[in-house]
Amino acid sequence: MRIDLHTHSTASDGTDTPAELVRNAAAAGLDVVALTDHDTVRGHAEAIAALPDGLTLVTGAELSCRIDGVSLHLLAYLFDPDEPELARERELVRDDRVPRARTMVGRLQALGVPIEWERVARIAGEGSVGRPHIATALVELGVVETVSDAFTPKWLANGGRAYAEKHELDPFDAIRLVKAAGGVTVFAHPLAVKRGEVVPESSIAKLAAAGLDGIEVDHMDHDEPTRARLRGLARELGLLTTGSSDYHGTRKTVALGECTTDPEIYGEITRRATGAFPVPGAGGPRPV
Hints:
Layout: E1 3-7, H1 18-27, E2 32-35, H2 44-49, E3 56-67, E4 70-77, H3 84-95, H4 97-110, H5 117-124, H6 131-140, H7 147-150, H8 171-180, E5 184-187, H9 201-209, E6 214-218, H10 224-237, E7 240-243, H11 263-272, E8 279-280
Parallel strand pairs: 1-2, 2-3, 5-6, 6-7
Antiparallel strand pairs: 3-4, 3-8, 4-5
Helix pairs in contact: 5-6
């Protein structure tokens, strides 16, 4: 089985619609794909309706969190999307995205970049507006060559010249809320230093003690020494290890299935989840 547990659609900051994403996942030879848009489950229904034969969908979200002044992303899988407290927190984060993005556009304008809010809003469409949409606008304007080039201290990286903070969850609260909703939590790209400051390993240990289920090890932003370091940390803390593409469509160069999760780990995630269950397309693989 080929399993990719971290992808994004136009419901947040990807370029594939949820329907296109599941079709592209099947075409890429995946057996299981997780739709984990930022702070929203809005794309799940469309993805389920379009789910092709032979592909199983894991429903999820990528939650925006902050600990000791450092941003982190928490992948939440197979939780009850209607659990009211978690739904309310997701809504608070989403509601803060527009004023935050407007602030970053203003800071870019102050730096002499001829960017307009209308351009960013057009790029975001119905999705939850975020930095990748602003980065795409910078590419269109010729300010940077690629979206990744915008995520530097010069522009949009954490603490960068045009960066602005947004409402983010306390990760300990997020773990508690996801667990209460029957879900499973995995720390996304924990040592992606090219994105900015990362959470220290001592904090990862505290999150593990609070119920964190796993860490994302195999990811495009982790080199081989970093992956080895994370595997050792996972063994020490008793955490699951996952691998994922963090696919955003054409917004990033990474391909679906570029990194994958071991089927035994996937099986353990499905066994721990009680809030929702993987959705198989007709003839698709059943949960392990």
